[in-house]
Design a protein that fits this description.
The complex is a heterodimer. Chain A is mainly β. Chain A has 2 helices and 8 strands, in the order H-E-H-E-E-E-E-E-E-E. Chain B is globular. By secondary structure, chain B is mostly beta strands. Classes of the chains: A mainly beta, B mainly beta. At the A-B interface, helix 1 and strand 6 of A face helix 1, strand 7 and strand 8 of B.
Chain lengths: 249, 168
């Protein structure tokens, strides 16, 4: 799974880079016969969007409902304040357990843009970090008792319905992703994240096997996730910089 | 550029979900069995091995649990009821049926289910309250071969130590 994600991500990066480069060639000015001045405009502002993956999953997966809003604010040439706010309602039907987790999460952090935009391009190929917090409740719907010495046969599923409230978890994440302008102020983005659980307030006699926004791997301390976003950019101010293109000799 | 985005979209939606990769580890402590140690009735501090002891639970008459030449036995308890009834049959299947002796031993307890892990689910722990066992003679009326039963540990939480002591 990890291997597949890594491979896909590298592939995605390569594809995007090649796409962006192709565009470079199209928009790059023709070699000038004399020195010319080009004005490069940098726009600053905030961008808000929604995770399409969670949204679409809510339609095709009957045990899942989720929504994630994403946003970033460009406060310097390469740095963005970034975050996500989400809500998830997930029922996990495991071999031995069936439980429902409901809760809200947010992540806040920064992104660093690695991509050198040419002229009025506004793409983002970034790495970043997040701090995540989630508060949620869990309902244990049913379970099985494990009996290694099966003299009396496998016991039937036991219905519980016990609800655990006031649970929470905190984690840190590293993020890598791309965000590309498609037209006007509309952007599409893709990001992959790996997270490590820092604190986890577990219920008595159960475990936080699903943590909204964390994407826990089976029952370990690590999580992996991704999102696919569409967002809109609200410009606030601009800076202009003149670039001198030297005449070719 | 638009092509690569379309491709990305396609890739994102074909990512497989996380696969179940965990099974309940055999070394994990799950539902414990009752541990009984057998002692000699003439010297109650001396362990004594049982000979062809068979345990048959009510409703499982054709599935005897056999023990031979051991002084410690492990007895499964029902995790769906607060009672488990066994026939303790000494010299089970002996040619000379005169030496075969059957006693009824009934265990009463309360149960509590404890979460173990995602792969294992829950385990049941048993707690012996007042009058946890009842010893009676079974047909034929030949007296009980078990002389005494003593409770050592009323909490059946694991299989590390004996919970019950029987002299015969």
């Amino acid at each position: 799974m990890m291997h597949t994600s890594r491979l896909l991500f590298s592939l995605a990066l390569v594809l995007l880079f090649s796409g962006l480069q192709a565009q470079d060639k199209k928009t790059a000015p023709k070699p000038a016969t004399q020195d010319s001045v080009i004005v490069k405009t940098e726009r600053y502002g905030f961008r808000v969007g929604v995770d399409l993956f969670k949204l679409s999953r809510s339609f095709y997966e009957k045990d899942y409902k989720g929504l994630e809003l994403v946003g970033d604010y460009r406060f310097s040439k390469n740095y963005f304040l970034a975050g996500e706010l989400g809500n998830e309602n997930k029922t996990v039907n495991d071999e031995r357990l069936n439980f429902t987790t409901k809760g809200t999460y947010f992540r806040v952090g920064f992104d660093y843009n690695l991509y050198e935009n040419w002229l009025d391009m506004e793409n983002k190929v970034y790495v970043g970090m997040r701090y995540g917090v989630s508060t949620f409740s869990q309902t244990l719907n049913s379970y099985l008792v494990y009996n290694r010495n099966d003299y009396f046969g496998e016991t039937a599923t036991i219905l519980s319905g016990k609800k655990f409230n006031g649970l929470s978890a905190q984690w840190v994440e590293v993020v890598a992703g791309v965000n590309a302008k498609v037209f006007n102020n509309f952007y599409v983005g893709f990001s992959l994240r790996a997270s490590k659980l820092m604190s986890n307030k577990k219920p008595e006699n159960f475990d936080n096997l699903y943590i909204p926004g964390f994407h826990r791997t089976y029952d370990g301390d690590f999580g992996v996730g991704f999102n696919y976003t569409v967002s809109y950019f609200f410009p606030i101010y601009k800076t202009k910089k003149e670039i001198v293109v030297k005449k070719k000799k | 550029m638009k092509k690569s985005i379309a491709l990305l979209l396609l890739l994102a939606f074909t990512l497989p979900g996380c696969e179940k990769d965990d099974i309940c580890d055999p070394s994990t402590a799950t539902t414990p069995r009752l541990i009984i140690d057998f002692y000699s009735k003439s010297n109650p501090t001396e362990l004594k091995n049982v000979t062809n002891l068979a345990l048959v639970a009510e409703g499982h008459e054709d599935e005897p649990i056999g023990f031979n030449g051991v002084s410690r036995i492990t007895v499964p308890l029902q995790s769906t009821a607060d009672i488990t009834q066994y026939k303790f049959i000494l010299n089970y299947g002996a040619e000379n049926t005169a030496i075969t002796n059957v006693d009824n031993l009934e265990f009463k307890y309360t149960r509590t289910d404890i979460f173990v892990s995602r792969a294992c689910g829950f385990k049941t722990l048993f707690i012996f309250g007042a009058n946890p066992y009842t010893l009676t003679d079974a047909e034929p009326a030949d007296g009980t071969w078990i002389q005494s039963v003593t409770l050592l540990q009323p909490l059946i939480l694991n299989e590390d130590d004996a919970h019950l002591k029987i002299t015969f």
